[in-house]
Amino acid sequence: MNTPVFTRTDPALGEFSLRTVDPAADAAVLHSWVTHPKAVFWLMQDCDLAAVEKEFARIDADPHHDAFLGLHNGTPAFLMERYDPAHRELVGIHVAEPGDTGMHFLCAPTDTPVHGFTHAVITTVMEMLFADPATHRVVVEPDTRNTGVHALNKAVGFEIRRTISLPSKDAYLSTCTRDQFLAARGDH
């Protein structure tokens, strides 16, 4: 289960890879990330270790939702969730088209930020999602207050479609097609 499912080499920062989350083995590191003050938009601030493990076990068992642990040069450094917006998160709010894939990502908190790291992470996430030929468009719903992620989303090609109200937040429903991502990267 610890075998990477996707690997990308960033010319400046090295190797980024993703592997499937192992709920029991990864719970402690994920708990330290999702309960950190910098992860306020992840909405798990008050969860204990057992609740985090239970949540990732639920995701693991869900046929419409996956979680991946991201590694930077072999060290756990980020989290990505992929979901089917026709079945999770946006049901009744967004009419999912064939090829739509939902995504969340979280960089591990750090006291020593590396310039360009979060951009390299979201680029890796988007490359992984678009490596699947069935994925035509990535859909996200970040909290309207999460200005940092809005800038990252725009940098990789996302367009805000509209503001939506979800049970836990007001969010910007945003989409990015494969062509928008390639154009943002400078590939045409």
TrEMBL record:
SUPFAM superfamilies: Acyl-CoA N-acyltransferases (Nat). InterPro entries: Acyl_CoA_acyltransferase, Acyltransferase_MbtK/IucB-like. It holds the Pfam family Acetyltransf_8. Residues 19-66 form the Acyltransferase MbtK/IucB-like conserved domain. Transmembrane segments: none annotated. Acyltransferase required for the direct transfer of medium- to long-chain fatty acyl moieties from a carrier protein (MbtL) on to the epsilon-amino group of lysine residue in the mycobactin core. Pathway: Siderophore biosynthesis; mycobactin biosynthesis. Signal peptide: none annotated. It comes from the Bacteria. This is Lysine N-acyltransferase MbtK. SMART domains: AlcB (SM01006).
